[in-house]
Write a structure and sequence with these properties.
With 429 residues, this protein is an alpha/beta fold. 42% of the residues lie in helices and 14% in strands. It is built from 19 helices and 14 strands. It has a 6-stranded mixed beta sheet with strand order 1-6-5-2-3-4, sandwiched between helices. The chain has a 5-stranded mixed beta sheet with strand order 7-14-13-10-11. Strands 8-9-12 form a 3-stranded antiparallel beta sheet. The protein starts with a helix and ends with a strand.
C-alpha cells in the first residue's frame, strides 16, 4: 500500500489512494473521518454533449463504482441543464449549442452507460440518477442572482485556470460560458438539500468548480461539503488517455463495438498495464502485482486480461468474453471471425467495370470504407507501407481491383486488416 494510502483510516480513501485514483481532496482529515463514521453520498456530473460518454470518463464512472463498493451512495448527475451552457474548460473555441432535442437524445443514450458499472435502486447504498435540468430549468433569473450570484467574486473567477487560459490566449469566452461554474456550484448545493450529498468528485481540471460549490454550500447552507479529484490520465508515452487515430473511444456499443473496445485495452502500452488494471478493473492488488511483473509474450496475456476485465465492466461479461474469443480466433487461427466490427459498403457505383460485367472496387476505397483510414490518400499511404491485408493477403498496389465474388466466404465480407491488431469486415450491399 502506498505511503499516501496509509495515511487514511477509512477503507474507501485507503483503497482509492492505493489504486492510484486519488489526485487531491479538500480537508483530507475531515473527509477521512466522514468516510470512517458514516455512509457518504457523493456525486459526479456528466454533460450530454455527445450520444455517448468516452473512455476519458471511465475513471469518473469507476469512482462512483468504488464509492458503492465501499458501502457509500453514488449519485449520477446527467447534465441536461448545464449542457445548455457548456463547460468552457480547456477549449480553444466556444462549445456549439445543442438543441433541446439533441440534448434529450444524448441524455437517453448516456443513461445506459452506467447499467453495468452501478447498482441502481432504493437501498441505502444503491445509486440514483438525476438530471440537473430538474432544478436549473426552473430557476428565475433575478432571484437566482440575488440568492446565488451575489456570493461569487468576479475577481476570483477570473483567476480560475479555465477562465485564465481563455483570457490570456484571447480565446472566445461568452457570458453564457462564464455562468457554467455558478451553475455547477449550485448543483452541489441543490444535491445537498435534496439528498444530503456531501461530496463532489471530478477530474483534477475541475478543482476550481468544486471549490466554488463547497464555498457556496458554506455560505447559503452553513454546510461542510467536500471535494475529491482524480488524476488526468496520460499513457507512458505521454499521450492523453483514449486519444486514438480513429477518434474518441466511445463507451456505448452503437458507437464503438465491444470488440473494438476490447482491442483498445489490448493495445495498452507495456508500462501502463499495472496502472490501468488498478484504475479500470476490480482485480485484487496481489494479482495485479503479479501480472505487471510479466515480460514479453507473457505481458501480452496480462493485456488480454486487462481488456477482458475492462470490457466486462462496460459491456457485460458475455460481451467481453465474446470479444476475447473473436480476437483469439482472428489472430491465432486466422479466421474471419464473426463478431468483428462490420461496416456496409455501397457496391453499386463501382469505379471499374470488369470484362464479365462485374462492378469492381479498388483496394484504397475498400480500406477507406473500413474506417481504418481517414481518406483515400491515407489508405494509399498505409497500403504503400505494406501494412494492409485484405482477406489475409498483403496488398501493395492501391489500384488492385476486387469484385464481390472475392468476399470471404465465411463472413460474406472483405476482411481488412491494418497492422497486427486492427481488423474490420467490409460488407458489400
Amino acid at each position: 500500500m502506498s505511503e499516501i494510502a496509509s495515511q487514511f483510516k477509512s477503507e474507501f480513501l485507503r483503497q482509492f489512494a492505493a489504486r492510484g485514483c486519488l489526485y487531491d481532496c479538500t480537508d483530507p482529515e475531515a473527509l477521512d473521518a466522514l468516510f470512517a463514521r458514516e455512509r457518504v453520498t457523493g456525486y459526479i456530473g456528466f454533460d450530454c454533449t455527445a450520444p455517448s460518454l468516452h473512455v476519458g470518463h471511465a475513471l469518473q464512472i469507476m469512482t462512483l463504482r468504488r464509492l458503492q463498493q465501499a458501502g457509500h451512495k453514488p449519485i449520477v448527475v446527467i447534465g441536461g441543464g448545464t449542457t445548455k451552457v457548456g463547460d468552457p474548460s480547456f477549449r480553444d473555441e466556444a462549445r456549439p449549442l445543442l438543441s433541446e432535442a439533441q440534448i434529450e437524445t444524448n441524455k437517453a443514450a448516456i443513461r445506459r452507460t452506467f447499467e453495468h458499472f452501478l447498482t441502481f435502486g432504493d437501498g441505502p447504498s444503491d445509486a440514483i440518477m438525476v438530471d440537473n435540468a430538474e432544478w436549473l430549468d426552473r430557476l428565475e433569473y433575478l432571484p437566482f442572482l440575488r440568492e446565488v450570484g451575489r456570493h461569487f467574486s468576479i475577481n476570483r473567477m477570473l483567476t480560475m485556470e479555465t477562465v485564465k487560459i481563455k483570457i490570456d490566449n484571447d480565446l472566445p469566452f461568452s457570458f453564457l460560458e462564464f455562468n457554467y461554474m455558478i451553475m455547477q456550484a449550485y448543483d452541489f448545493v441543490e444535491l445537498y438539500r435534496r439528498y444530503g450529498c456531501r461530496l463532489q468528485s471530478a477530474g483534477s481540471d475541475q478543482w476550481g468548480n468544486i471549490v466554488s460549490g463547497i464555498d457556496l454550500g458554506r455560505r447559503v447552507e452553513n454546510a461542510q461539503l467536500f471535494g475529491l479529484t482524480t488524476p488526468l490520465i496520460t499513457t507512458s508515452s505521454g499521450t492523453k488517455m483514449g486519444k486514438t487515430m480513429s477518434g474518441a473511444v466511445w463507451l456505448n456499443p452503437e458507437m464503438r463495438s465491444p470488440y473494438d473496445y476490447w482491442q483498445f485495452w489490448r493495445n495498452t502500452e507495456d508500462g501502463d498495464v499495472g496502472r490501468f488494471l488498478r484504475l479500470f478493473t476490480d482485480m485484487p492488488e496481489a494479482e495485479i502485482a503479479r501480472l505487471e511483473t510479466l515480460q514479453g509474450a507473457e505481458l501480452n496475456e496480462a493485456k488480454k486480461i486487462l481488456a477482458t476485465e475492462a470490457t466486462a465492466l462496460c459491456h457485460g461479461r458475455a460481451a467481453a468474453e465474446d470479444a476475447a474469443e473473436t480476437a483469439r480466433r482472428t489472430f491465432e487461427e486466422g479466421a474471419a471471425a464473426e463478431g468483428l466490427p462490420t461496416v456496409e459498403m455501397d457496391w453499386s457505383a463501382g469505379e471499374v467495370s470488369g470484362e464479365r460485367g462485374w462492378t469492381l472496387r479498388q483496394a484504397d476505397t475498400i480500406v477507406k470504407m473500413s474506417g481504418l483510414a481517414t481518406s483515400r490518400s491515407d489508405a494509399r499511404r498505409k497500403i504503400g507501407e505494406g501494412a494492409v491485408r485484405i482477406n489475409d493477403v498483403v496488398i501493395t498496389d492501391w489500384k488492385k481491383e476486387f469484385s464481390v465474388d472475392q468476399v470471404d466466404p465465411q463472413s460474406g465480407a472483405f476482411k481488412v486488416q491494418y497492422g497486427k491488431k486492427k481488423i474490420v469486415l467490409v460488407k458489400p450491399v
